Structure formats: C-alpha cells, structure tokens
Amino acid sequence: MAEQLPETPETAEQETAEEEPVKQRKNGLYPGVSDELAESMKSGWADTELRDLEPIPQAAETAARRAALSARFPGERLVVPAGNLKTRSNDTEYPFRASVEYAHLTGNQTEDGVLVLEPTADGHEETIYLLPRSDRENGEFWLDGQGELWVGRRHSLTEAEKRYGIPASDVRKLPDALREATGPVRVVRGYDAGIEAALTDKVTAERDEELRVFLSEMRLVKDDFEVGELQKAVDSTVRGFEDVVKVLDKAEATSERYIEGTFFLRARVEGNDVGYGSICAAGPHATTLHWVRNDGPVRSGDLLLLDAGVETHTYYTADVTRTLPISGRYSELQKKIYDAVYDAQEAGIAAVKPGAKYRDFHDAAQHVLAERLVEWGLVEGPVERVLELGLQRRWTLHGTGHMLGMDVHDCAAARTETYVAGTLEPGMVLTVEPGLYFQADDLTVPEEYRGIGVRIEDDILVTADGNRNLSAGLPRRSDEVEAWMASLKG
Q1: How large is the greatest C-alpha to C-alpha distance in the chain, in angstroms?
Q2: CA nearest 38: which of 8, 3, 18, 2?
Q3: How far is 402 from 419, CA to CA, in rounded Å?
Q4: Tell me, which GO biological process terms does this entry list (predicted)?
C-alpha cells in the first residue's frame, strides 16, 4: 500500500471553510511539497466529465419509494444518511456499505451521502448530498488520503443528478444548513454522527424510530426490480455452491477456509460481496448456528453445512443452506436426520401462500420435526405436548425463517403486527430453513447422533397463487444431492 503524502502549509492555507483539512501522515517519506510541484499538480489534467450517463436501472422504483415516504410524513424534513467510513486499524478502513435505508431510497452507495426531503406545500423537495469531485486547485485530490488519486474517481454532482434523478449538492455544506433549519425533522440514526449532532436539538428518539420503522416496513413487499435482483443473487449463489463441491478434496487437504474462500471468489466476481459471513461448518461445527470462524478440518464421512449468499451490486442478498456429505454419500443415520429436515421444509414451503399467517410455515415445519423426535424416542410425546412446551427446541433451536432482501434479516425494525404476527402478501420474500442439531456434548441423545447438524434453507417468493422457490436450482432431496455432487465431481 502506497504512502500518503503530507500536507504542507501552502496547501493548508488554501482550504476553504467548508472543506476538511488535508490529513498529514506523521512518518511520510516526503517532508513537504515544493511550490513548483504544487503548481504542477494543479494543471495538465484532461476533462473527464461523463456527459452521456443514463439513469440507474432502478431509478423509477427509487422515485416511487421516495414518493411513498413523502406521503407518509407531510410537512416534515426527512434526513436519511448513507453513513461514513469506519476505521479497521490505524489508517485503513473497512469496505464501505451504505445504509440500507439510504440505498433503498436512492440507489446510491457513496460514503457520506445524505438524502434530504425538504417539506413543501404539496410534498417534498428532494436533494441528495454528496462529496463533489476532489479539488485539484488546493491539492486535495492527491494530498488527502480520501482524494481521488488515492481511492479512485467519484461522480461529479452533475453526473450524480443524471444517475439518480435527484438534484445533488455538496454534502460539506449540509451540517450548517441543518443546524439553521426550523420545523419538524426526523433522521435515521446510527449512521452519521456529524449529521445527528447538527440535528441534536431538533429531533426526538420516538419520532426518529417511527421513521426507521416505516422505512423497514416499506421493504416487506418487493417490487419487480427487487425480485429480479434477488433471483440474480440466488443464481450466483447456486454457482458458488457448485464451485465448493468441485473443490471439496482441496478443502479436506486444508480446512473450512478453503470453502469460504471458494465461495467468496464467486461472490466478488459476480456480485458486490457475500451478503453475510459465510457459514462453512464441517462435522460437529454444523451444530453451531453461526459458525463463521471457518478454521476447522473437513473430513470425509462428516457433513458440511454450507450457509452462504451472494450479494448483488445493488445490495440484494441470497441466503441458502445445504448440508452436504463430504464423501458424496450420506450415511444411514445422516440420511435419516437429513430426510426429516427435508420433510419439515417441504411442509413449511407448502404453507407459504398469500393470505396465510406469517407463522404458518414455522408451525408446519416444527410439527414435522417434533413428530420425528418423538418417533425416534428422543423426547416423550404426544407431539402436541412437545410443541406446547417447546421441548423440540433443544434440537431445532431457531425460527424457521425470516424476511430477505437488502439485509439478510430484512425488515427487522418492522412492527411485530406487520411482520411475525402479519399476513403473507404477494411480493414478500422469505427463507424457509428448518434444522436439527445434536450437540457433541448432548448426553440426552444416543452417541451416534452427537455432532450431527442439518439445515436446509431456500429463498421463497410469495406469488399470487402460492409461492416460487427462487433457489430451486440447487437439489434438496437427499438422493438428488448425492447425484448432483457425483456429477460435479465426475
């Protein structure tokens, strides 16, 4: 990684009041910048303005979302920040991901961006506040660590207006404007401390929470663009699972990290990133629900629980799980447990349809698993008693699914009455993911069960007449999984 050049007194004096001062690197190899070099860096650069830009593909959808937001909060100023870079260590940052609320409303993914809706007599006036192109006159573009010479070109404000269909302005002027603003204001909290500080005497936690809840509930029903992006995410994820099966021999020679790295390659080549930390859990690690250390051995004869999803360039993520026999064939006991989970998932998926209660798919899947646990003698029946007391949860552990979208656990801030206690509608996308997990130290089950964990997860779209499995491209039935693995290895 190249060193950052220091600022000089000459360049520091040229900073304007609304600009951040150029940051200085304490131990840089260059102690300063000569007047001649500073003058040279100001000129001789080609005009790179992009004049033939088209709006982003989802521009119509983001405009409709902003209109719905405007209608919900008439007469109020609404502030939705993208967020800022976060330091990983010293002077390196984590990869930036804009807040879901901001990205959903604008399609923009730029750090420090802020969407502001100013109230008018008949709605709101929209402005997207962004960092403009780096200043070449004062040397910011090559002397500042976030200058374009260091981190790459960003769109001009004119270009941003064309891409997002929203008037754009310099975000460095926004805090002062917000401090002077009057009238009711709401802000999405937790992303931009500077913006929140500018509004500290104008907002209340209760009103801001109402805004956050509304923006979360806006995402419960996906539009056609969103469904298309989720299908892209799933299709890439299917290819990622195929990649993993093809290299299981290399994972056996190394560790679960080979699996993690293999899937990550597909995610970065075809998408933006993984949608969440991949769970590459081999052997007894499969009984740990969120095993993301991925540093354990991969052994023939064990199962691999792979829970992973590709995130598209527009932030929509898949969330798919398959539990695969590392050898290519399930043992008799592994197959018995796997088939029980498969039957539970079949019952859960069948319960996903418009007009059904959200909880129906969970209850259907849990009923099947409770039946099997009673049948195997692991818990005393009858089944209704087991379910009433929740005794099956020792081995089923988690809920059977969740909403899916730009967050892997999407719409999390929605009200309970519109989510868990709500009713399914066409356009909703949710996971159905029952599982059975027998911990390695669970003395209440026969020894041969211990250390076996199985989960099967698919991404299900509620349609007008039922549902569609977006991840149907991956086999689920145990015999189909074995045949699929054999074909990929062969």
Answers
A1: 87
A2: 8
A3: 9
A4: proteolysis
Give the Cα separation of 247 and 203 in Å (integer). Answer: 54
Q: Count Cβ atoms below 10 Å from residue 183 Cβ, excluding itself.
A: 10
Q: Helix, strand, or coil here: 9? A: helix
d(CA 107, CA 58): 7
Residue partners of 158: CB distance under 8 A and separation at least 6: 49, 168
The CATH class of 224-489 is alpha beta
What one-letter code names the amino acid at 161?
E
Write the CA distances from 122 to 80, 110, 117, 246, integer angstroms.
Answer: 20, 29, 12, 59
Q: Are 395 and 452 in contact (CB under 8 A)?
A: no
- Mean pLDDT calculated for residue range 171-176: 97
Closest CA to 457 of 438, 483, 476, 480: 476
Question: Which residues sit opposite 278 in a β-bridge?
Answer: none
Q: Please name which of 425, 405, 431 lies closest in space to residue 228, comparing C-alpha atoms.
A: 405
36: Cβ contacts below 8 Å, ≥ 6 apart? none
Report how far apart, in Å, the C-alpha atoms of 162 and of each of 102, 132, 438 are.
Answer: 18, 14, 55
Question: Does the pLDDT at position 417 exceed 70?
Answer: yes
Domain locations in the chain as residue ranges: 53-218, 224-489
CA distance 254 to 260: 12
Answer yes or no: are the C-beta atoms of 453 and 438 closer than 8 Å.
yes
Between the CA of residue 248 and those of 5, 273, 285, 317, 476, what are the distances in Å? 46, 22, 16, 24, 19
Closest by Cα among 473, 20, 70 to 241: 473
Measured between alpha carbons, how far is 164 from 54 in angstroms, rounded to an integer?
A: 9
Residue-wise pLDDT tens digits, 350-402: 999 999 999 999 999 999 999 999 999 999 999 999 999 999 999 999 999 99
Helix, strand and coil content of the chain, in percent to the nearest 5, comes to 40, 15, 45
Q: Where are the alpha helices (DSSP H) in 94-204?
A: 100-106, 140-143, 148-151, 157-164, 174-180, 193-198
Q: Render 316-339 in DSSP notation, one character per residue.
A: -B--EEEEEETTSS--HHHHHHHH
**Whole-number Å distance between alpha carbons of 402 and 408:** 8
pTM more than 0.85: yes
The pair of three-digit structure tokens given for residue 127, joined into one six-digit string: 């402005």
Question: What average pLDDT does the segment 150-158 reach?
Answer: 96
- CATH number for the region 53-218 comes to 3.40.350.10
